[in-house]
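To illustrate this point, we now present one chain and its tokenised fold:
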Amino acid sequence: MTVESEVAHSSTWRELIALAAPGRDGRMLLDRLAAEVARGSGLDSLAVYAEEDGELRRRLQTGPATFPARAAAAPGAAGGEAWGRFEVPGGLLLYTPPVPAAELDHHAVLTLLCALRAVQLGGELKRHSFAASYRGVELQSLYDVGLAIARTLELDDLGDEVLLRAVSLLDARVGAFYLYEGGGYRLERTFGGEAAPRVAADAAGSAAGLLPGARHALAVPIEADGKRLGLLAVGDKESRHGVGAFPEADRRMLRLFANQVAIALENARLHRQALEKERLERELDLAAEIQRQLLPESLPDVPGFEFAGWNRSARHVGGDYYDVRGAADGGVHLVLGDVTGKGMPAALLVSTLHSALRLLLAARPFDAELFERLNRHIVESSAANKFITTAVARLEPGTGRLDYVNAGHNPPLIVDAHGEVTELPPGGIPLGMFGGARYRVATATLEPGALLCVYSDGITECEDPSGEEFGRERLSRLLRSAAGRPLADLVRAIDEAVVEFAAGAPQGDDQTVVLARRS
């Protein structure tokens, strides 16, 4: 080999190596090499074949001869022409005229075949590079979509956003978004067509029947920590050739998207819970304010009597209410009510009792008809499952006469000057249960030195950590110790005794005590 051919050979191989770089077009070099092989070997025409999918296919041709598209048709003759044949691993050269293969420039032929392989490798690299780039674009799109739905915190808006993003991401013509509830999937949103209104829980992995109008469908469940949240279905992938099925890559993409949707759904649910908690706290603040306004700031100063009251709510807003108020005729009205439930409904019912009872006590005599009217009013203005146990007493300061009505409340206690505890007889049913309920007024006498105690069941039913109740007997012992003590001190003693007994155990009911003692 001459110096000139060595240089040309080195130059050719440098170009050959460069052909493997993605994006490099090697067609011109291949044509030049093919022409050099034909000229150097005295050939009129030649065709180069490369192995592809298990067969040899024509990839390059120069000269006027006609060669078959696949090497399976060679060697042989067609139209009176005969071909020569030069075989190498993974490749083949057919040529005319059919001179012996030994007379060919083997170096040039091998260079040509290597160049063809280099171009093929470059194409493969280019395809892999494109696939990687496309995958990167998909992942970026998925990331962008995830950010978009993560910012959507309203569940109603999230359904629209999820479905629109899903059909856009997979070029789908139709889609459906379901939420899991009641042991199945309920249709939340549709896009582009009809969808089954409800899907059984065990059908989450099957797209059959979800989108009746679609020829091809794909569905994946939306789950978080093993908990079912929803279902996402798309149908009929659109392309320039029409609609078709979804490849496995789309299924993987939809699964990844469903994972993001699961996070977004959980975020939206947490957001809704936070808003609900906020709303409830505002409601409780308002209810607490209503309750504070209804409880007396101070108790009346009545000659011959001493009064005290105390209330502790088990929650932010309780259902207990008490009042002590002087009447226009010189008597004193004492009230304690215990409403079922807590929060705003309880506060509103207490407010109803407070206003209605004050109006009736100011306008009517203290008789059974007053309480039957009060009961009808409570029934008409409250929910069916809301009622209030109530004890209402009227004291005559001069005589110690005590008229009282007990509407389903704990029987009040009277402790005489000698420490004897008497339980007043029970009365009718709680206010608000039945519109036709009847009540009666009972009478007793509060002798000098005697103490009247009206309390809610939160006192006697207060539980310690073992579940034992405070009970009426403990309360009675405290009341017997009242002789010679201001009632304000007795109220504090009851409070301290209950707290000590509970020993930190949570209590489910309010605690209220109202005391009246005749001098």
